[in-house]
From TrEMBL:
Localisation: Cell membrane
Transmembrane stretches, start-end: 20-44, 65-84, 90-112, 133-155, 186-208
Organism of derivation: Lactobacillus rodentium
Name of this chain's protein: Polar amino acid ABC transporter permease protein
An annotated GO cellular component: ATP-binding cassette (ABC) transporter complex
Superkingdom per UniProt: Bacteria
Length: 219
């Protein structure tokens, strides 16, 4: 292990680190928004939209991100829809993540008791009001374990972006290995970089999960 090699590669890895964080953040936020909307559509069984959402969730969960990225990056330009590699990566991550988030939120929303829904309807609440004041607050707390797992999963999935030449952490490490043949040093830096990202996020989400569940259920 040559520490001089590691020191020299730090500026390059810093750029890959920053890009990985940025792509992950946009992808996770977009996935949560898509997931919440999709799960609420399924929960309230909105005609036509619920069938479309179900098809989307099944397609998103049952196709690899690698294939989705290839389709976005290579197939879309054929029909005139050309996107940069970064945009393709974000769209692919949101497409994949939204499907997984939808399943997680659906499980949480289904945990809300039917008696509370019936009570809300008896009070004259619309579906929008039920979603805002009854289903979402309680369902979100129940969905926290799935949300935590999906966020971690999506951050790790950014490593797939290397196949479309996005210079994130994995692509940076592979490029340096190809140029200088120092596998041990660059792979070590890759592992450390992902650990720096993931460990604090895991600790934060675990703490948040406990706080949310304590606030909702008092245990």
């Amino acid at each position: 292990m040559n520490w001089t090699v590691i020191q020299q590669a730090l500026p390059v890895f810093a750029k890959g680190f920053e890009l990985t964080l940025w792509l992950s953040l946009i992808g996770i936020v977009g996935s949560i928004i898509v997931g919440v909307l999709a799960s609420l559509i399924q929960y309230f069984k909105i005609p036509v939209l619920s069938q479309i959402t179900t098809a989307y969730v099944e397609l998103g969960r049952n196709t690899p991100l690698l294939i989705q990225l290839f389709f976005l990056y290579y197939a879309f330009p054929v029909i005139g829809l050309k996107m940069s590699a970064e945009v393709c990566g974000i769209v692919g991550l949101i497409f994949l993540g939204g499907a997984y988030m939808a399943e997680g939120f659906t499980g949480g929303f289904n945990g809300v008791t039917e008696s509370q829904i019936s009570s809300g309807k008896a009070l004259g609440m619309t579906n929008m009001q039920l979603a805002r004041y009854v289903v979402f607050p309680q369902g979100f707390a129940l969905s926290m374990p799935a949300l935590t797992a999906n966020i971690i999963f999506l951050i790790k999935e950014t490593s797939i972006f290397s196949v479309i030449a996005i210079p994130e952490l994995t692509n940076t490490a592979l490029d340096l290995i190809g140029m200088y043949y120092r596998s041990n040093e660059y792979l070590f830096m890759l592992v450390v970089a992902y650990a720096i990202i993931l460990i604090p996020i895991i600790l934060l989400l675990t703490w948040l999960e406990r706080r949310v569940r304590y606030g909702a259920f008092g245990d």
